[in-house]
Amino acid sequence: MAAAAAARLLRLAPRRLQVKTSPLAALSFPLPRTAPLAAASGRRQSFCAAAQASADAPAAAVAAATGPVGEAVGEFRKRLRVADVKGGEDEGAALVGKELAVRGWVRTCRAQRTVTFVEVNDGSCLSNMQCVLTPDTEGYDQIDSVTTGASVLVEGVVASSQGGKQKVELKVSKITVIGKSDPTSFPIQKKRASREFLRTVAHLRPRTNTFGAVTRVRNALAYATHKFFQDNGFVWVSSPIITASDCEGAGEQFYVTTLLSNSAEGGSLLKDIPATKDGRVDWSQDFFCKPAFLTVSGQLNGETYASALSDIYTFGPTFRAENSNTARHLAEFWMIEPELAFADLNDDMACATAYLHEISSRGLESPNYCCFMQVKYIIENCKEDMDFFNTWVEKGIIDRLNDVVEKKFVHLSYTDAVELLLGSKKKFEFPVKWGLDLQSEHERYITEVAFGGRPVIIRDYPKEIKAFYMRQNDDGKTVAAMDLLVPRVGELIGGSQREERLDHLEARLDEQNLNKESYWWYLDLRRYGSVPHAGFGLGFERLVQFATGIDNIRDAIPFPRVPGSAEF
Q1: What is the DSSP string of 485-554?
Q2: What is the per-residue burial (b if ≥16 Cβ within 10 Å, else e) of 457-484?
Q3: Mean confidence (pLDDT) of the chain
Q4: Pure H helices in 232-344
Q5: Which region among 94-98, 132-136, 324-328, 333-337 has the lowest average model confidence (pLDDT)?
Q6: What letter does residue 400 receive in the DSSP assignment?
Q7: Who has greater pLDDT, 65 or 298?
Q8: Residue-wise pLDDT tens digits, 116-132
Q9: pTM score, two decimals?
């Protein structure tokens, strides 16, 4: 009985002994001036020393009855970051007089006769915290180590700034250099560097204004994506990265194999790779006993779960071994791929527009006058970063995005789009002809010129230029496919109604010389309770480009993978 009571006391002790603090203190919790560097360098403190000491008493009392007792794990608390201080409407004015601890990386250090200004950025926003030091500041003897790129902890009091660039600054009482940075070799200096150069130091480019802003906008778009689908009842499914199927049927896939051993110096010799009698690679001796690849799409696997859960989406990395060195192609990229059961192409287009619109409470009805959801979200939640892009990357981008918000989507058939292009009398680099795929220049002309900046959906493409899984229309020449085009990017979303009829799907596999045995499980979905269904794929990096104005897709992803480059 006594042991049970003691155990209950131990379980309750941490909750009873937590110290109540103000919301500001809970966020900023400046460390005591006597705190050692190990604590000051980054630990979040859950309990004060007094509370922990008090906790030792019941723990000791229980030890005899229950055995050895370890220390309680501290409570996780969100730190007050620069964005929390400077991101409000008053830009931090309400915090004047409050103590604050800032942890981040030095952008610049300007020493004057009696005062030194250090700009510190913690990555939470574009703005730096201007930190004002004097020779009386504790730790000022380390000032020679406060160089661009160094990591520091600065503690002090928020004060009104005398300068015109910011409303508040930090009057520093103590500075601690956590990690030094050699100013003679640190590759990112105050002067502007080309994006081509920054790709060669991709491990450091997040510390620049441009790539910090791109990353925060990318994060906001990912959050808004999950929120949209979750709010509309979709289930997120983790599709496999390794697959034995070619979703697009194009054959541009990366092999996954263990036949090329890394144990031998310089890698495997050709003679050591197992082969069949006719000289082909013997995949039966490989890890999966068959050819395996990095996936080009999560769609086929997504369809299996849509056939059970109705509405699902995948959001993950995909790969394509296309030897293309352009500003529009990556070998590794992220895809958003929803699948809707009991749906046709019209439902698919409605979902695609709803994803980019702020939908009404009626669900996925095609909206008429709604706001571009993703655009609205980043304009409202990434204002400082969007202002930066508007000034330094694409002048007028905010006006362009707002212009898209105010304009309705339109859709037309592929046949009508070809006739529009032929009738434009414009000389294109690539030919325009029925049966040929539309190129980026054609897509941008349609959305930017012909329809004056409106988002445009083109539907019903020739079946010869589309994938095997797309549902054949009654005309026998086209499939129920659609591409959603936006200004500056061209195709942003590509989707279709999937072929739910077993005989038609088998015929399409035969037409494209694809091995039906590799798709046995995909065909099973048509054998057992097949339903009309549809879905689309959205290249996430193209969405980032559209939202930020970044012209090269290699700058829309943290570590670009392209032909001849797999660094970092």
Answers
A1: EETTTEEEEEEEEB---HHHHHHHHHHTT--GGGGHHHHHHHHSS---EEEEEEEHHHHHHHHH----GG
A2: bbbbbbbeebbbbbbbbeeeebbbbbbb
A3: 86
A4: 299-309
A5: 324-328
A6: H
A7: 298
A8: 999 999 999 999 999 99
A9: 0.84
Residue 176, both tokens: 């601690």
DSSP 319-386: E------STT--SEEEEEEEEEES--HHHHHHHHHHHHS---TT-SPPPSS---HHHHHHHHH-HHHH
Side by side, the strands of the sheet bearing 533-539 are 235-236, 311-319, 332-341, 533-539, 490-497, 478-486, 456-462, 410-413
* Virtual torsion, Cα 335, 340, 341, 343, nearest 10 deg: -130
From start to end of 391-451, where are the E strands?
410-413
- The tokens describing 112, both together, are 């004057």
Q: Which of 413, 402, 400 lies closest to 458 in space, CA to CA?
A: 413
| Cα torsion through 453, 454, 455, 456, rounded to 10 | -110
Q: Are strands 129-133 and 99-111 parallel, antiparallel or unpaired?
A: unpaired
Tokens representing residue 327 in the block: 């500003």
Which of 91, 147, 138, 141 shows the shortest CA–CA distance to 120?
147
For residues 38 and 21, what is the distance between their CA atoms, to the nearest angstrom?
23
Residue 222 tokens, joined: 């990912």
Q: Which amino acid is present at 198?
A: L
**% the chain with pLDDT above 90:** 70
How far is residue 525's CA from residue 245's CA, in Å, rounded to a whole number? Answer: 15
Which neighbouring-strand residues pair with 337? 314
CA 406-411-417 angle, to 5 degrees, is 120
Which token pair is 320? 């394509």
Q: Specify the residue for token string 């996780």.
A: 76
pLDDT digits (tens, 9 = 90+) for 206-224: 999 999 999 999 999 999 9
User: Tokens at residue 360, please?
Assistant: 């009404």
Asked whether the beta carbons of 220 and 214 are under 8 A apart, the reply is: no
Residues 372 and 408 sit within 8 Å (Cβ to Cβ): no
| Amino acid symbol at 36 | P
Nearest to 354 by CA among 229, 540, 260: 229
Residue where the block lists tokens 């509370």? 51
Mean pLDDT (whole number) for 124-149: 97
Distance, in Å, from the CA atom of 152 to the CA atom of 128, rounded to the nearest integer, reads: 13
Residue 249 tokens read as: 């049927």
Residues 382-396: b if buried by 16+ CB within 10 A, e if exposed? beebbebbbeebbee
- Which of 270-279, 295-304, 362-371, 416-425 has the lowest average pLDDT? 362-371
